[in-house]
Amino acid sequence: MKVVIYHNPECGTSRNVVALVRAAGYEPEVIEYLQSGWTRAQLAGLFAAAALTPREALRVSKSPAEELGLLEPSVTDEALLEAMVEHPVLVNRPIVCTSQGVRLCRPSEAVLDLLDRLPAGPFAKDDGTLVIDADGQRVL
């Protein structure tokens, strides 16, 4: 199975997703979108596949969303998409694509719903929270 992760290496949730995918035996294609940027068509396609609106995918914390006036309810989806293309950090992450679907994987263990197999376990997130127990069963 092919796994594509739109990743920010500075984000703990994103790092946990990459680690979970690798622990499950996949070598994901990791796209560092802060470097590569987005196209409007790419974002619109990802959001449609994940059943997300641009507002639902908008990163509010640790982003310029408020300073850019994007939190106002009157801001259109089109305006949000344009801002996200101009400022890639406005897109919440990580977004993961597999044959099982596309999803914004927050919390990180949400990625398990997109995989054909789970890590053998035990597996804990960076903060020590157990996700897969020693028997290979989901904890969260």
Strand line-up in the sheet with most strands? 2-1-3-4
> How would a crystallographer describe the biggest sheet?
4 strands, mixed
Q: Span from first to last CA?
A: 24 Å
Computed CA radius of gyration, to the nearest angstrom:
16 Å
Helix tally equals 5
Which range does the strand content fall in?
Answer: 15-25%
**Weakly predicted, low-confidence segments:** none
Q: If you had to describe this structure to a student in words, what would you say it looks like?
A:
With 140 residues, this protein is α+β, with helices and mostly antiparallel strands. Helices cover 29% and strands 15% of the residues. It is built from five helices and six strands, in the order βαβααααββββ. The strands form two sheets. It has a four-stranded mixed beta sheet, with helices on both faces. A two-stranded antiparallel sheet has the order 5-6. The two termini are 24 Å apart.
How is the topology of this model organized?
Elements: E1 4-7, H1 12-23, E2 29-32, H2 33-36, H3 40-49, H4 54-57, H5 77-86, E3 95-98, E4 101-104, E5 123-124, E6 130-132
Parallel strand pairs: 1-2
Antiparallel strand pairs: 1-3, 3-4, 5-6
